Amino acid sequence: MDNLLKWSQLQTGAIKLFKEEIQLTQLINSVISLFDAASGQKNIRIITEIRENPIIFADMVSMSSILRNLISNAIKFSKIGEKIIIKVEEDDKSIRLCVSDYGVGIPREIINQLFTLERPSISGTLNEKGSGLGLILTKELTEKNDGTIEVESTINVGTTFILSFPKVIAK
């Protein structure tokens, strides 16, 4: 329901973003803690690979929503006893945030529809249900924060969502 509300607010222009410098390590850790029960139910370890403390200029509420959606999906489609890796990489111009699972993977024909209303909602490995709006919302919020999103997936190996944001230049 939260995704539906946020998506409809985005469509009507009711959501206003308040961009600020965000320390990604703190944000990622706080969002991960929300999934202790869900990851525990499937015995999934969530591992972070973050050097230093990268900073992006974005809206905190929307970034939290983006991470919640990606981590929730990673848990939903992971096999019992697997892991999820959240990695942050930097270069001179951008910060890449990668959320990788070792789950069922996404068929190529569905990858092209992931960010549209045309794709069917798919149940998770324990028949977890979803609305199909989470990734649409994630893409729109990522773009509103001057970012891009990509997907890499292999059936029965896993999926990685890669978000790229402009790097904050130190003053």
Note down, in words, how this protein is organized:
By secondary structure, the chain is α+β, with helices and mostly antiparallel strands. The protein has one domain: Histidine kinase-like ATPase, C-terminal domain (Heat Shock Protein 90), CATH 3.30.565.10. 35% of the residues lie in helices and 28% in strands. It contains 6 helices and 7 strands; from the N terminus they run αβααββαββααββ. The chain has helices at 2-12, 24-33, 36-41, 60-77, 108-111, 134-144, and strands at residues 19-23, 45-50, 55-59, 83-90, 94-101, 148-154, 158-166. The strands form 2 sheets. It has a 5-stranded mixed β-sheet with strand order 2-4-5-7-6, with helices on one face. The protein has a two-stranded antiparallel sheet with strand order 1-3. Strand 6 and strand 7 form a beta hairpin. Helix 1 (2-12) crosses helix 6 and helix 4 (60-77) runs antiparallel to helix 6.
